[in-house]
Amino acid sequence: MIAGIVAFSSNGMIGLNGLLPWEIPEEFAYFETKVANAALVVGRQTYELMFPAETDCFVVTTQPDLVLRPGYQALATVEQALLAAVQTGKDVYVIGGASIYAAAWPYCERFYVTRIEGEFEGDTKFPESVPLDQWTVVSDEKKTFMERQSSTPVTCRFMEYRQQLPRFLPGMDCKNRVAQSE
Ligand SMILES: NC(=O)c1ccc[n+]([C@@H]2O[C@H](COP(=O)([O-])OP(=O)(O)OC[C@H]3O[C@@H](n4cnc5c(N)ncnc54)[C@H](OP(=O)(O)O)[C@@H]3O)[C@@H](O)[C@H]2O)c1
Fold first, then answer.
1. Contact by Cβ (8 Å): 100, 124
2. CA distance 129 to 179
């Protein structure tokens, strides 16, 4: 299973100065629980902020000589990173940032989206090219938490989207398993 996971605000923001635009530990805990024990596909800039790898992490970068921290592996394309992640046999989560969501969404069968119901200042937006409005919503739950920087309550809408026909990942069989011939 390949899934995307993202949190974005009402004005589409996902990042500010390399960090999240908000501080909502409960939402981050949801993310951590979701991706625990999965294989992760991540862009190099988001990787820079991550803690030591506790699971398989595949970092997409154009820098072939980039030295990564232990537990992380560099791949040159999103497709190569997805394939390496699938080959671990674990569920795969695409955890951003924007450029990685934009390239990986066709291969995702699910997208876990937290809509943060408020406008936040940011410098990185969730890409409008991801056509979530054409996907099916299979769950939708609202919870309200305190946003710590502003000390104001904010509603988080936890949604799961499904895409009926994800794109075939080169090198995989039709059930997203590694082709037997490899
Ligand atoms: N709200 C959320 O759910 C969420 C999730 C993740 C990230 N974020 C936020 O998003 C921001 C970072 O996102 P971002 O979009 O700026 O950066 P990013 O996607 O994390 O990383 C971009 C880097 O990935 C590599 N890359 C991207 N596309 C590639 C491709 N097609 N082929 C090869 N390499 C590729 C390049 O690395 P090189 O420069 O090394 O070549 C590029 O500079 C941060 O503020 C972070 O906190 C938010």
1. no
2. 30
pTM, full prediction? 0.95
Predicted pLDDT at 181: 36
For residue 124 and ligand 1, the question of a CB distance below 6 A is answered with: yes
User: Which ranges of 43-165 does DSSP label H, i.e. alpha helix?
Assistant: 44-47, 78-86, 98-104
149 lines ligand 1 (CB under 6 A): no
For 71-123, how does the pLDDT look when each residue is reduced to its tens digit (9 = 90+)? 899 999 999 999 999 999 999 999 999 999 999 999 999 999 999 999 999 99
Q: Domains for the chain: give ranges and CATH numbers.
A: 2-162 (3.40.430.10)
Would you state the structure tokens that stand for residue 48, as one six-digit string? 């820079």
**Cβ(6) to ligand 1 under 6 A?**
yes
Residue that is written with structure tokens 């970068």 in the block: 61
Compute, in angstroms, the gap from residue 155 CA to the centroid of ligand 1: 26
C-alpha 27 – ligand 1 centre gap (Å): 20
Cα-flanking dihedrals φ and ψ of residue 45, to 5°?
-70, -40
Provide the pairing of β-strand 39-43 with 92-94. parallel
